[in-house]
Design goal:
The protein is of the alpha+beta class. It contains 5 helices and 10 strands. Strands 3, 4, 5, 6, 7, 8, 9 and 10 form an 8-stranded mixed beta sheet that branches. Strands 1-2 form a two-stranded antiparallel ribbon. β1 and β2 (9-10) form a beta hairpin. The protein is globular and about 65 Å long. Mean pLDDT is 82; it is low at 166-183 and 185-200.
Amino acid sequence: MTKDNNGINHTNGEEHLSLVDSMSPFLDNGKPKLGIFWYDAASQSLFGVEKMDAEQATFINGRATISAVPKTYWQKQHHRAEAKGDTRSIFYQEHNYTLIPRGRIFLDKATDRFYVCVGSWLHEGVAGLKVDAEKLHELIEDEFNLPVDFEFVIDYHWDLGHGWSEPHEIHPHPQRADQRRVACDDMSLDGDDGQIEVLG
């Protein structure tokens, strides 16, 4: 580096390339991602997004997802907002992460297809607000670089008020001939937490 007359350092060409090179792993590489998110129905936007490249994921029982746990993520954000005194933050205002619409992106090894687990809020709405499923599909497609043919999967685990604080039990949902059963489970991915509805 060289200093100018004002005492400010400047990079040369080689140093510039080295700096840019060190930042490149943090750029969006355009590869599909797995992850978690929350959905703000009022602003029709995603927040609390955590993601990783799908190609780096480990498959468990034929499915891959990110290792982040929404409950832990929410608690950290809540404590951070409290420490800052950020009373306008949703993380400050809401203690229970399950009361805000959320979802998780999975990759199925057998089909090499992505699916997004969400709750029945997708069709029922949130606090009197209708959820625009097409808009949500676009937001997720863009945020996680997913192919357009990913499917939503409705599972009670992602229903408002449901999560890991409740006992695991099977909640059957009506099945149609064109539906399949897939396990959507935030942590264990063990496939025995219930039936779900695939929306294609």
